[in-house]
Amino acid sequence: MAPKSKGGGAEEKAKEVLTAVLLADSFTQRFRPITVEKPKVLLPLVNVPLLEYTLEWLALNKVEEILVFCCAHADQIKAHLADSKWLKQRSPRVSTVVSTNCLSLGEAMRSLDQKDIIKGTFILVSGDTVSNMDLGPALAAHKERADRDKDAIMTMVMKPTHEPHQRLRLGDTSLLVALDSSSQRLLKYQELDSPAAAAAAAAAAAAGGQRDSSSAHHGGHHHHHHHHGRRGRSSQVWKLDASLWSERDCVQVRTDLIDTNISICSPEVLLMFSDNFDYQSLKRDFVAGTLSEEELGKKIHCHILQGEYAARVHNLRSYDAVSRDLLARWAFPFVPDTNVFYKAGPWGPSSYRYARGHKYLEAVTGCSRSAQLGRLLAVGAGAAIGDGCIVSQSVLGRGVSIGKNCRITGCYLQDGVVIGDNVTASHALLCEGVVVGSGATISPGVVLSYGVVVGPRHTVPAYAIVSLCKQITTEVSLSDDELEYASAGRVSSSSGRPPARRARNSTSGGGRQPRRSNAASDSESSSSSSSSDSDSSSEESSSSSTFGDTLGVKSMEKPSSLAVKAAQVLAGGDKDQKAQIAGQVSELGFAVHLVGEGGAGYEWPMTDGYSAELYSIAPPPMTLAEHVYDSDAENDAAGGASDDAAGPDTARGAADEPGERSGGAGRGGAALDPETVFMQEVGETFLRCVKERFAETNAVIELNGLKIAEDRTFADCARYIFTAMLQLCLPCPGWVSPEYGCLFPADAPDSSSKDGKLALLSRFKQQLREWGNLLRRFLRSEDDQVELLLTLEEFCGAEGVFEADSSGTAFAPLFANLLQLLYDGEVVEEAAITSWAAEKEHADEGEKLFLQKSAAFLAWLKEAEEDDSDEEDSDE
Amino acid sequence: MNLSNLVEEYCTQLRRRQIKGSFACAKKTAEVMRLLITTQRHPDAASLIEDVRTVGTKLQAAKPVELGIGNIVRRVLHMIREEQQQEQLEASEGSSTPGDASKGPQGPGLLSQAFRPGSNLRAFNRAVSLSNLLDTPAMSADGLSSSFSGILTAAADAVAAAAAGDAQAADAEGMRRQQSSRKGRAPPQWSSKNNVIEMLNELLDELDGIEQQIAQQAVEHIHANEVILTYGMSDTTFLFLKEASRKREFQVVVAEAAPRFDGHTMARQLADAKVQTTLIADSAVFAMMARANKVLVGAHAVLANGGVIAPAGVHMVALAAKRHSIPFVVLVGLHKLSPLFPHDPDVTLNDFQSPGQVVDFDVLAESFMRGDEQQPGPDAAAAECLSVEVHNPAYDYIPPHLISLFVTDTGGYTPAYVYRLLAEYYSREDYSLDKELIDRMKL
Question: What positions belong to coiled-coil segments (chain B) (predicted)?
Answer without folding.
Answer: 193-220
